[in-house]
Specification:
alpha/beta, 5-stranded mixed β-sheet
């Protein structure tokens, strides 16, 4: 009888637990006047973190709230809206998506469609790949994705200055991490929202990367007179250290793949190569380095073959 009562009590509790959903425990941290960041964990996707590995942010202007990235799920987006409401009664008027990777845009459903903006290339990539990304996220993080569907941004952003409620935002249309990477620099506060062009103490991801273009974009960001730097992943910084770290890793990775292909190594051998101590300390490198090899090494092999073929002809 005791066991039966305990089982019934457990069953009675289940609907309540389900109704509560996944709690992201979002705690916005103010880093500058009017400016808050919701920091993600230095982890890979998991059921435990619900995909909360990304940095999102919001700026409270006199005209309303500007949000930078909507997060990995509908529930994350809804909890962001609730967190913003605790900080201000101003409406959310803009939600700027930095690029088309799922942890940055799958919270879009929580916001009015008219507020959603991204670069034209990002919009087309979300439309083309968003459904597949969404399905994969269900497998990676489980119940946190409940009721999440793809909401494609409706406003195509263009580079330049946008004045909103006393804040002078500069939209920068860059690329390299993906084919369309938006960075946002708030000249009024000196805060640079770099998206995934910059990682800090976290290994960069490369599924759509073009390293040469990425390095050029980092040069553009490094030239800005920012006071605070919000990377796509990792701690907020007050200097260009995360830009240098990201650049150093990408240059090392590119050189390693080029040299390995020229030496005739295969992909498995490259994945087993020892990692420099300076990069061993970066989060999730044991997962991200092999992924980057799988993403980028085929192109390095092709380039090496073309070089060999060209030399043979001469």
């Amino acid at each position: 009888m005791k066991r039966l009562l305990a089982a019934l009590a457990l069953i009675a509790c289940l609907p309540v637990a389900q109704a509560a959903g996944f709690d992201y425990r979002l705690a916005p941290r103010q880093i500058a006047p009017d400016t808050w960041v919701l920091e993600g964990a230095q982890e890979d996707f998991s059921f435990a973190n619900g995909g909360r590995i990304v940095n999102t942010a919001f700026v409270v202007t006199d005209a309303g709230v500007v949000v930078i990235d909507s997060g990995p799920s509908r529930q994350y987006g809804e909890q962001t809206v609730a967190a913003i409401a605790r900080a201000t009664d101003k409406p959310i008027i803009k939600v700027w998506i930095t690029h088309h990777h799922p942890d940055h845009f799958l919270g879009n459903q929580a916001f009015a469609t008219r507020t959603l903006g991204a670069l034209e290339r990002t919009i087309s990539d979300i439309a083309a790949e968003g459904k597949a990304f969404n399905e994969n996220m269900y497998r990676l993080v489980g119940d946190a994705m409940r009721n999440t569907e793809v909401a494609v941004p409706t406003e195509a952003l263009v580079p330049g200055i946008v004045e909103i409620g006393g804040h002078r935002f500069e939209l920068l249309a860059l690329d390299g991490h993906t084919a369309g990477d938006l960075a946002v620099f708030d000249h009024s506060t000196g805060v640079l929202f770099a998206g995934d062009l910059v990682f800090h103490d976290r290994t960069p991801t490369t599924p759509h990367a073009t390293i040469a273009r990425w390095l050029k974009s980092l040069d553009v960001l490094a030239a800005l007179p920012f006071k605070q730097l919000v990377p796509g992943h990792g701690p907020v910084a007050a200097d260009a250290g995360p830009i240098r770290q990201t650049r150093d890793y990408l240059k090392w990775l590119d050189a390693l793949l080029t040299q390995s292909a020229a030496a005739g190594l295969d992909m498995t051998e490259v994945m087993r190569l020892p990692l420099p101590k300076v990069f061993r300390q970066m989060a999730v490198i044991d997962a991200e380095f092999p992924r980057s090899v799988s993403h980028l090494f085929p192109a390095a092999e092709e380039a090496a073959l073309n070089t060999t073929s060209s030399h043979a002809k001469h």
